[in-house]
Write a structure and sequence with these properties.
single chain, 78 residues, alpha+beta, two-stranded antiparallel sheet, 2 helices, 4 strands
């Protein structure tokens, strides 16, 4: 991708684009950095539970409610 961005909800999942190459965990770190910035939570509150080498990832986010995440995504137009 040309920029790090949230692209919207697709098939019930949040689609995220990052500029980092999917090698040596660089893209995973970029996903965590982007979510941390948008949700205004520490990076260590976000973990990738599965899909580290796949485009489809299952992520756990702590320290923020699902309602607040949904509110932030709505405010972002998603």
């Amino acid at each position: 991708s040309s920029r790090n961005a949230l692209l919207g909800i697709h098939d019930g999942a949040l689609k995220i684009a990052v500029t980092a190459a999917p090698e040596k965990g660089k893209a995973n770190k970029a996903v965590i950095n982007l979510l941390s910035k948008i949700l205004k939570i520490p990076k260590n509150s976000i973990s990738i539970d599965s899909g580290e080498t796949s485009p489809n990832k299952k992520i756990t986010i702590q320290g923020i409610t699902a309602d607040r995440i949904n509110e932030i995504l709505r405010e972002a137009g998603l």
